[in-house]
Write a structure and sequence with these properties.
- It is a single chain.
- Among the domains are: 3-119, 3-Layer(aba) Sandwich (Rossmann fold), CATH 3.40.50.12160; 124-248, Transcription Regulator spoIIAA (2-Layer Sandwich), CATH 3.30.750; 373-423, OB fold (Dihydrolipoamide Acetyltransferase, E2P).
- Helix content is 34%, strand content 23%.
- It has 12 helices and 19 strands.
- The strands form 5 sheets. Strands 2-1-3-4-5-6 form a 6-stranded parallel sheet, with helices on both faces. A 5-stranded mixed barrel has the order 15-16-17-19-18. Strands 7-10-11 form a 3-stranded parallel sheet, with helices on both faces.
- Helix 1 links the parallel strand 1 and strand 2 (31-32).
- Helix 11 runs parallel beside helix 12.
- The chain starts with a strand and ends with a strand.
Amino acid sequence: MKSVGIHSLGCKVNMYESEFVMNELKKAGYEIKSFDDICDVYIINTCTVTNSSDSKSKKIIRQAIRKNPEACVVAMGCFIAANPDYQEDGVDILLGNKDKSKIVSLLDEYFKNKEIIKRQYSERLKTFEDMYINEFPGRTRAFVKIQDGCDNFCSYCIIPFVRGKCRSKNEDTVVREVTDLVHHGYKEIVLTGIHTGSYGVDLDTNFAHLLKRLIAIPELYRLRISSIEVTELNEEVLKILKNSDILVNHLHIPIQAGSDEILKAMNRKYDLDYFMKKIDEIRSIQSDIAISTDIIVGFPGETDELFEKSIETCKKIGFSKLHVFPYSERRGTKSSRMDGKIDGRRIKERARRLLEVSKKLEEDYMKKFLNSTVEVLIEEVHDGFSYGHTGNYLYVKILGVYSHNEFVSVTICDIQYPYCIGKE
């Protein structure tokens, strides 16, 4: 029996795909081991969203080669798709973002012939590669990949080039997969994709129609959207948010910049006025909703004044959390050819300041729930404490040992960042 270790970098889509690959290998008779162990096969599902992601991908690949020079090393995913000429002595199988589902037959081919396999495609991928998972061992929250690819072409982003066109999983298949996960005991399902809200653009359906079908699944307690663009929060989606107890009161809506000047340069599809009116509309139907966001600092042309405007915008909107990304130049994108590049030290300082703003916003949001009763889904239990999240993504620490994957009703009695402290 051959052993395999898998390391996944980057987004939740990669996490889902790696889980699928692991399940396929397990069914084929491979022994699943820790990536830190000595294995016969190492698989690295890479990321290329930033320069740092590229560096981490190459570092993990080299670690695998050093751990066991005799092992078959598989490098797949976005870094490989973005760098078709990449080759490292010791890497035996190179895949872009197609044929991950064929990992078992690819390994069979490699072990039969002992020749390097390269499967990379220059055109933008147009067909959804079906994957189906009915269990996530050790996890409370299950992910379902419903969509792949992106057609937005934001000026800073390499992902449309390496993930291909927007394409969607068959709607009946999504419903069946979520139903299977619920039957396996998962109480919270997270819908994920590269551009999740575009679901159905290539099919005779849309995201709102899918949501309606999913919230009707018996015994599904929570449905969460991993991320959605503000322009996709249309009337139908917001109506479901208003009327359903299944769709959680948390949305992650990337803003990326807090000034119209930078939003335009980024080729985003909205301005601040549109974004802020949409947030007001959301809060008019869910007043206590958590709204987190992504924001990039140091984009070319971001002056000190425009950066300060971004800070004020984040405060004014009152996000529950900021995911801060220092601008990273990606070869081949429009922004890589722009003037007004920002010094790395200044970008780092801006990121530090925004993270301070994020912590204050998080604490302000958490304090709104002092003395409130909330439902917590228990995810971890250790050292006499239980930990889990509410629907609006408050991270709650509870004194006492409770059952994993069960809901507990507690009162928030204190805030000790990053936790809300709960008691029965």
